[in-house]
Amino acid sequence: MKILTTIGAGAAVAFTLVACAPTEETPITRAEADLMVEETVAPAAPVAASGAVAPANSVNGSYNLRASECGQPGSEGALNIQGNKFVFHESECTAISSTNKGDATEVELSCTGENQGFTRLTKLRLSPGVLRLEENNVGLRYYRCPAAT
């Protein structure tokens, strides 16, 4: 048994030494080296994207006061924002001014709805998946709806 243990240990040492033995590298030409570098370096100009990509903090999109009503036509809690256009259930507004107010953005909206023109002064706070809209000391939480596919 002692002989088998000694032979096993000797074989393990031999395999370890073989594994650590230096290997011979085949030299490559300058042209081959340049080709390898070209394959691993990023292109000088970015590759064109398939379309515009909105930043993560973009307020553009569809929202609803009830996440379960996202995408339902005629939902009274719907809000769609695109650029300076805010489309609520029964009114359409255009942002005419905005001011940064700490953790919120104060937005003045010029609106029309139900055959009337009016202005709204709102504070918007955007967090992942939620847009908080405050108006006249009343806060509403709008949930971001998944993008239509």
Describe this structure in words.
The protein has about 150 residues and is of the alpha+beta class. The chain is built from two helices and eight strands. It has helices at about 1-20, 30-40, and strands at about 60-65, 80, 85-90, 90-100, 105-115, 115-125, 130-135, 140-145. It has an eight-stranded antiparallel beta barrel.
Topology as H/E string?
A: HHEEEEEEEE
Q: The biggest beta sheet, please?
A: 8 strands, antiparallel, barrel
β content, as a range?
A: 35-45%
**What is the tally of helical segments?**
2
Overall mean pLDDT stands at: 79
- Pick out the low-confidence regions: none
In brief, what are we looking at here?
It is built from 2 helices and 8 strands, in the order ααββββββββ.
Main features:
single chain; 149 residues; alpha+beta; 8-stranded antiparallel β-barrel; 8 strands; 20% helix
Which SSEs are present, and which pair or pack?
Blueprint lengths: L1 H19 L9 H11 L20 E4 L13 E5 L2 E4 L3 E10 L2 E10 L2 E12 L2 E6 L2 E7 L5
Antiparallel strand pairs: 1-2, 1-8, 2-3, 3-4, 4-5, 5-6, 6-7, 7-8
